[in-house]
């Protein structure tokens, strides 16, 4: 098993670093594939043969396999359509005069094989936490007694693995447009990424927040709530490297526009095999840990919003529900989420996520954009699944020996007829 996982990681790394095009096919493990593997392994293992003749006879009697892949030729996708799903909860008072906290999570996934890119942890877990926060906060914002003077913006961004192009478009819409003041006065942007397990939470920042800033207040609340839950919470400072073609974390897109932002993740750093892997499946998620992490984030956020203790605030159905967490997780892992599989305006997953945000937030909408191919340079193909057939064939040496045997037989018959 360990060898198999290592092989998959090596294949994924090679595909990401390759400068030339190559075709790599991945398939689910089945009894038929295991039988083919065992046959090939036995045929190529000549060390166990007692003699050269035995090795030759073994190679002649063992079947080989010819692999044929069916389906149409893959074609380049000329334009990739990316969808942003966004909604907001308006604070009490004049909305344009209130500060905003933005909560962001990209919903797409990446892997060596598009049809196996489930992205359960990266970044399905971030989407799960965002949806649960929207469910809880919507009830608090609906009551006059708990309606704070603060706007909340929710963004399920597309193109997370294409240099966070969904967030780039979101910033352009709300910062460069004069008629959209939502982000004009932002306390901070909280990006959620890879929170499905672990015993620690890390707040990744490009610039350490000042001690008097709202971002620092949230971090203090996160530390205290994490300590109560037995979690280690730390801040990881990493400057933005402008020499790199892509940003390491989603919050860097916001930091580059001089907005306070950070990414909350269980990971120590962005460059790890756990992000963008076909091994990131539903089975890798620790539901209890994900529920606990969601509770810590929700408690810290509410503690900062209301500037008070959150003891008792989760009563009356407001608590983070493991049942709810499971339902969001089942939804986000119900299909592979490679960008080309979600492209277009008829994606069932995008439609469902939009319906959920419409239920819990105001003015929920889907914004479509054409991904900028220069940021960074990328290529996607339309055919993501093919049928593979394995035909049992004899080696060429067997055909040669069979031909010699037939010729010898015919020679014997000819000589016999001539003698008679």
List keywords for this structure.
420 residues, alpha/beta, Aminopeptidase, 2 domains, 8-stranded mixed beta sheet, 16% strand, Peptidase_M28, signal, BOS complex subunit NCLN
Structure explained in plain terms:
- It is a single-pass membrane protein.
- Residues 100-298 form the Peptidase M28 domain.
- This is BOS complex subunit NCLN.
- It is a single chain.
- An 8-stranded mixed sheet has the order 7-6-8-5-3-4-2-9, with helices on both faces.
- The chain has helices at 2-17, 31-44, 52-61, 120-142, 165-175, 214-228, 251-255, 287-306, 322-332, 339-342, 348-360, 396-419; strands at residues 64-69, 81-89, 100-106, 151-157, 186-192, 200-205, 232-237, 261-265, 362-370, 388-393.
- It has 2 domains: 2-71 and 386-419, no CATH class; 81-370, Zn peptidases (Aminopeptidase, 3-Layer(aba) Sandwich).
- The model has no long low-confidence stretch (mean pLDDT 86).
- By secondary structure, it is of the alpha/beta class.
- Helix 4 (120-142) packs across helix 8 (287-306), helix 4 packs across helix 9 (322-332) and helix 6 crosses helix 8.
Provide a short characterization of the protein structure.
It comes from Portunus trituberculatus. The protein is an alpha/beta fold and 420 residues long.
Helix percent band: 25-40%
The largest sheet is: 8 strands, mixed
- Please report which band the strand proportion falls in: under 5%, 5-15%, 15-25%, 25-35%, 35-45% or over 45%: 15-25%
From the 3D structure, determine the CATH topology of the largest domain: Aminopeptidase
The ordered H/E elements are HHHEEEHEHEEHEHEHHHHEEH
Regarding quaternary structure, what we see is single chain
Give the overall average pLDDT.
86
Strand order in the sheet with the most strands: 7-6-8-5-3-4-2-9
What is the CATH architecture term of the largest domain? 3-Layer(aba) Sandwich
The structural domain count equals 2
- Cα distance, first to last residue? 67 Å
Shape: elongated
Q: Using the coordinates above, name the CATH class of the largest domain.
A: Alpha Beta
Rg, rounded, reads 28 Å
Say how many strands there are: 10
Any idea what the CATH superfamily of the largest domain is called? Zn peptidases
Which structural class matches the secondary elements? Answer: alpha/beta
Low-confidence stretches: none
Q: DSSP helix count?
A: 12
Protein name: BOS complex subunit NCLN
GO cellular component, one term: endoplasmic reticulum membrane
Transmembrane segments: 396-417
InterPro entries: Nicalin, Peptidase_M28
